[in-house]
Every structure is written in structure tokens, then in C-alpha cells.
Amino acid sequence: MTSPVWVPRKRRGAEFFLTVLAVLIGIAAYASVGLGVEGRIPADTYKLGGALIVLAVATHLIVRRVAPYADPVLLPLVICLNGLGLAMIYRLDLGRQQIDPDRAAFANSQLVWTAVGIVAFAAILIIVRDHRRLQTLTYTFGAAAIALLILPLLPGIGQTINGARIWVVVLGFSFQPGEAAKVCLAIFFAGYLVVKRDALALAGRRVMGIDLPRGRDLGPILACWLVSVGILVLQRDLGSSLLFFGLFVVMLYVATERAGWIVVGGVLFAAGAYFGYAAFGHVRVRFEAWLDPFADPDRNGQVINGLFGLAHGGILGQGLGQGSPQLTPYSFSDFIAASMGEELGLTGLMAILVIYALIVERGLRIALTCRDAFGKLLAAGLAFSFALQVFVVVGGVTRLIPLTGLTTPFMAQGGSSVVMNWAIIGLLLRISDQTRRPAPEVSTFASDEETQVVKIS
Amino acid sequence: MNRPIRNIAVACLALFMLLLLNANYVQFVQADELNSKNGNKRVINEQFSRDRGSILVDGKAVAESVKVKDEYKYQRLYPEKDLYAPLTGYFSYIYGRSGIESSENDVLSGSDDRLFVNRVVDLISNKQPKGGSVELTIDPLAQKAAAEGLERLGDDTKGAVAAIDPRTGAVLAMVSQPSYNPNRLASHDFDEVQKAWKELTTDPDKPMDNRAAQQILPPGSTFKLITAAAALENGVVTDIDDKVKAGTTLKFPGYGYTLPNENGGNCGGNTITLERAMNVSCNVAFGGLALKIGQDKLAEQAAKFGFGTDPIDKLPASASRFTAPDTKLEPPQLGQSGIGQYDVAATPLQMAMVAAGIANDGDVMKPYVVDTVRAPNLRVLDKPEPKLLSEAVSSTTARKLRDMMVSTVTSGTATSAQIPGVEVGAKTGTAQSTKDRPPYAWFVSYAKDGDNEVAVAVLVESSDTARSEIAGGRLAGPIAKSVMEAVIGK
């Protein structure tokens, strides 16, 4: 007799239902943008809405086919955010072009990038049938991360945009390799820490109450991280260096189960922040803009405008297409959270934050239920970096913390960000499919039974 | 590894809680403060895009918002261009607001607390909030008559007219020349607005000042009404037939200065009646009276007519002055002050209040310009009651002053204001300022005809008229007359 094996339900139907809701939210957002800005449902609704339906159905079918046991909530949440982001970018295109008809429109290219992102998402699910195979490529990913980070520094293809040298332009397409480096680094950290976690946790000397690991265990990962952050500091990318640091510390903590790493990380972060404040003018400017933006309204115009937008939105918001988010510089990328807060109000912004929180907690749940250490670490790292990214960018825009340049996942205009975040969701769904999939039927079980038919009467 | 992952889940939750709390702080707690910050274009845009209420005169809009097809949706329009500009003020995207547009902004923009219910209804029915309307006390015929009267003196005329209803204080006309076209400042073509603003603010004639309420100038002989009032009230003379000292000059023993009459005459004798002194505007007589009354009593009388206080709400205005505070006047200065010279300075509105107080049996009413304030649904939100400013003189004194003003019109310097069959009283003034500029022509008058009453003050600061021709009666009198005719319907 087979013992009853608990088989998780696939719940693809639930996912489909939620996906329909998410797509409806996106299409409704388009329609109300048109109504708000132009007083009619825009012709683009059918085009953009149709594209959204096609993309959502495609993702759903791919998941149903190649990852049937994957978490059913993540995908609809992401589609909802992506749809809202597209609608807001479209809205801001209209708003900015009202001021100056020659301004570039971003909605269409963002839609193309979304499609590319979904291709990347599908590719990961289809090619990586088992996430544990990524572990064999640990050092390859480590090297790739460094290589990607160096790319923008290379003359010819690297470009400085808005003071940060984090862009690569090839054949007219600009891309931020740092986004891809983040994922590569997470895989490298996970692969390395799985192997070394016991050594890191147990072997070593005790100095002042803290167990320090041996240099040869910590060395490679420390070196890799230092190089990454060093490059980012060179590129003046504050947000990403903070993100990579957080990722590193947290994955070390999860792997070793030693809270001391968080303490060490916190102290190092404080020291680093102070050093940055003392050494770099642009860090100081950010700090001052955070403490008192109104002391220098000309310089801190963007932060002030973002706050004005949020206040203007109030509790219920101005309504899509009826506020003035286009007044804020970079309202379509860095400050899209402020744009959402202005037009959807506190209510809408809180709903969006809850969606982000749900994505993070779903990711961490995947980490919890994952049976292998590599998957656990990778899922935890990806989920945490996602949370940290949302916190840093939304906190920066709403003046909870100093502003650092990071993208708002799935909503901000920017190809690299959308593509890599879809890739991250692909990885999470892959791990969750592995986790929830019932263990393969062990055929030897039956034959064992047969050999044991000796009945003792 | 599950324990650290659980801890991280809690930590992430804490991060998101912080974001949510902060969003509440910014969008709810701090919102009002942020919305009222300077340079908040969103709030300016929003006010600019609202269906702002109208400013009405006799039911017709003199400032209204009309729908347009641009991003601001509504354009502020002033159909009468510069005629009502001193009252309405302007409503500009770049330069803010002035006049009634500014003082009644809460009602006009619809953000007044009394319109809260309307706003909630608008919110629920998803309508744009509408502003309430403000009806002015102005009589359009009087306003037009005043403006046309000043215009008739030539393009370069600078001057002002203020007319009030003596019984209530309601302002019936308020004209300032030169004026400006507020449409230029309300335009949505901001380059044009900036150009207009530069022109208007650098114009030496200050077209954006409301000369009728803001500019104080020596009132000259029209101030003799106050000197006469003080003399009668304080028993310096008991009746208008009492003799007062006249002659060609007033001497101040111990001072090298003598006060002459306007045209060097002797006012018709060395002693004349008070009425005669008023009719011919005898400087020697009123200078002498001022010395007898004394500075304190004279200042007190001026204050009772409203000198030294901001005369009107809702509009920018200047207080008139009898003398600088804490100044002890030397006799020659006091003598000059008694005839509205030296440091005495008044607005046309203030002088209209003097005439109104005399016409209203001595009671000066507080001038007001906003008649009714209505919600968008025409419900009356506010209708100010006439307010007594002060009892300036007794009704007996007022009667005596009126008699003198009437005889000044029938047989004195103010004959230009005669209206057949109507009681008209007036006092002229030709005030000196500095030697190198022409004198100011003043005319202060009232008319009573049955149920109609009006008090008018006209100031012609400068015009194309030759210097020798300038006299209050000749220049300003006909303007006052046409305004009075407009009000009493003759």
C-alpha cells in the first residue's frame, strides 16, 4: 500500500482568474488615462490593451506548460504592476507632449521591452528546467557579474547619463548591465555560500565575541562583492551599491544563520555612508535634499515636486490623467511612485506597495518551502533584493530616506529593469515549481513491495 | 536556513510598513502644508483650471471665467477691460491676484469653508468644484459716468473718482485713471503676460494703483468742510451767519510767514459770514478758524470722519492723515492744515466719506464694496449690513454744513455741479503740492433727490488742461455732476 503523498494543487485556474483581474486593471487604467487627459477612450487602448492581453495569456500558457506547480499569485501581481506602469508611462507621454510635442514617447518602447522581458521569463522557465543546474555555473555567474559591471566603463560603448556611468549603448539600444549583474551576483552568492556555509559558520577564530570565518572561505565572495561595489562607486551608482551590499549581507546571514553578519553589515554600512557623505559632493547633496529640501528649492526641485505631487494626490488621488505628474522631472522613471501617488492617491500608492510586499513575501515563502539550500538562498536573495529596491526607491521619492537612483520594479520606464525583473520572476517561479512539484514516483517502491510478499502466518 | 528567512520576511514587512506609514504622513498629514507652499505649480494650476465664480455689477459679470480649449480649461475674462480693474484686480497665473480677485479668492475659487458642502457634493458627483460669485455695490451708470468724465479731460489725465451712498456706505463708483486691462495679465500666453506686467509695473503713472482708495494727496480746500465742522461742533462759531475774520492775508505773530488767499483777494471784506467764507473758499478765514480750534480738536474731527483708519475692507487702501503722528504743529502749519495743505493728505474715498457723513446727518457709514456673496447655486452666503463708522458731527451741525455746501453750488465756487430741481451741495479744492507741478483739482459733493442720495469725490491729479485753468470747480465739478446725475437718474 502506498502511503498517501501530499500533492500540492497546481492552482493554475486560480492564477488564470487573477491574471484576468490584473489585465482588467491595466486596461481600465488605459481607458481612464484617455478619459482623464483627452476626454475619450484613446485609440491606443485597443492596441496597448490588446498587447497586454496577448502577453498575459502567453505567460499564463507558458507557466501552465513548463512550470505547472509554480506559485499562482506572483504572475498576476507582476502583470498588474506592469500594466499600471505602462498606463502611467502612456499618461506621462501625453502630459509631457502637451508641454512640448517633440518630447519622446516611452509607452511603446516600454511595451516592447515588456515583451522582451516576457521572452526572457519564458526562456528561463523553458531552458532552466531545474534551478539547481545553475549552481554548477557559480563562478561563471560571478565572473559575468563583474564583466557586466565593467562594461559601462569601457570607452566606446559606455555612456554617462545624468551623472551616472551605468549605461551601455550598442546599436542604438541603451541598456543598464547593472540590472543583469544583480541577478548574476545573486546566483554566484547562492552557489558559493551553499558550498562554504558550514566552513563560514563554524571554522574560524573568535574575535571580540564574533566568530570570524577563515579568510580563504570568505575571501572570494568578499573580493567579488568589493569589486562590484568599487565599480559602482566609480560609476556613482549609489542605489545599486547599496542594493548589492544589502544582498551580500543578507545572503551571508541566511547561509550562516548568524545574526552577527547583520550587525557587522550595519556597522560597515554606517561607516560607508559617513565616508560617502564626507568624500563625495553628490552624496552630500542627496543628504541635504533629504533633510531639508526647501532650503534650496532650485537644486532640490525634483524632490520638492515629487512631494507636491504626492500632497496634491491626497487620499483619493486626482484620478488618472487628471493630476500634473508631468511637472516632476523623471516622473516616468525614478519618480513614477510619486506619479502614482498623485493620480491614484494615498489609496492607490498603498495598494501598489501592498502588491510589492506580496511579491516579496511570496518570494520568501518560496525560499522557505524550497527543499534545496541553493534554491532557498537564491529565492531569499532575490526576494530580499526586490524588497530593498522598492524600499530604497519609494522611500527616496517619499523622503523617508535620501534619494538614490534605482528603478521601481515593473513600473518605471527602462528596458533593462523590466527585462531583468521578469527574469527574476522566472527564476522564482522555476524554484517554486520545483518546490511544489510532487516527488517523482519511485518505481522501486512497488517492486520492493513485491519482494516483501512473504506472509508470516 | 528557515529561521533567518523568517526573520528576513519580518524585516521586509517592517520596511513596507515604514513605506506605508510614510506615504500616509506625506499624503495625509503633511498634504495641506505642502499644498500651501510657495511655488507649488499644481495648486496654482488647479485654481487656474477651476470654473471660478464671477464678479458681478448689477447682475452683469465684470470678471468671469469662460471655457477654453487649453490645458487650463478656463480663461478669466474682464469684459469691461480697464473700467473695473481698480475693483476686480487681476487674476494671473504668474503674478497671483489683486483686488476682489484676491480678497474674495476663497469664494471665487470655491475653497471657502462655507462652500464645503458644495465641494463634497461635487466630489461625489465627480464634478469640478465651482466657485461662488461676488456682487459689487457699484452702480454701473455712475461708474461709467465717472470714467467718461475723466477721459474727457484728455488721454494724459490722472485722477480718481469715488462715490458712495451716504445712508449705507455702499460704494457706487470707484474709478482710477489711468487704469489697466486685467485681461492682459490673465492671458494664458505667459510671454505676453510678462511683457504686460513689465510695462505696467515700470509705468511712472502707476496704472495698477487704485488712486481712489490708495493714493493720499493734499485735499486742499475741500478739507475746509472738516475745519468748518470742527468750528461748529466746538462752539468756535455757533452758526453759519456768524462773522469770521477774513481779509487778504492771515498773519502769524512771531513768524515770517503769512497765509494768502488763492487769488490774492480779500474774500469780500475783513469780516464775513462763515457761509460766505465757504462759498468763496476763503483761506484766511479757515486758517484763522484752525488756529482757534486748535490742533487736537481739528485732528479729532478729522479722525471722526475716518482719517487715520483704513477706510474700506476687501480692497487695498491707504489711511488718510491730518498730520504725521506725534507732531506738534507750529501756528503757520496749523493754519495751512486747516485749509488742507501742509501735511494733510487724503484719498478721494476719504473725501467722499466726508461729504457722505454731512449728507447723512453727521453719521459716517463704513464704505463697503461687496454687496452679496453667493454660492454657485446662488444661495446667499453673506450680505454685509451697513456699519456705522462714527457720528462725526451732530445733525444740527450737518444741517448747517449742508446749507453752506448748497449755497456754494448755487452762488459760490461750485456752480458747475448744479442740477435743476435737486439738492446738491459741494466744496471745491485746488491743492498745491510742489511749485514745479500743477495743483490738484478736487471736488467733493453730495446730491439728494427723494430716495436717491449720493456723495462723490473727484480728484484730477493732472490733465492736459493749462495750469491757469486748473480749479476744482471747473475741472472736477462737471465729473462729479455727471456721476450724481447717473445715480439720481436725471
From TrEMBL, chain A:
Domain of life: Bacteria
Species assigned in the record: Aeromicrobium wangtongii
Transmembrane segments: 16-33, 45-63, 70-90, 110-128, 137-154, 166-195, 240-256, 261-280, 344-361, 373-398, 410-429
InterPro entries, per database record: FtsW/RodA
Bilayer topology term: Multi-pass membrane protein
Subcellular location: Membrane
Protein name as catalogued: FtsW/RodA/SpoVE family cell cycle protein
Keywords from the UniProt entry: Cell shape, Membrane, Transmembrane, Transmembrane helix
From TrEMBL, chain B:
InterPro entries: Beta-lactam/transpept (IPR050515), Beta-lactam/transpept-like (IPR012338), PBP_dimer_sf (IPR036138), PBPA_dimer (IPR054120), PCN-bd_Tpept (IPR001460)
Pfam families linked: PBP_dimer_2 (PF21922), Transpeptidase (PF00905)
Domain Penicillin binding protein A dimerisation: 52-134
Residue span, Penicillin-binding protein transpeptidase domain: 159-485
Protein name: Penicillin-binding protein 2
Species in which this protein is naturally found: Aeromicrobium wangtongii
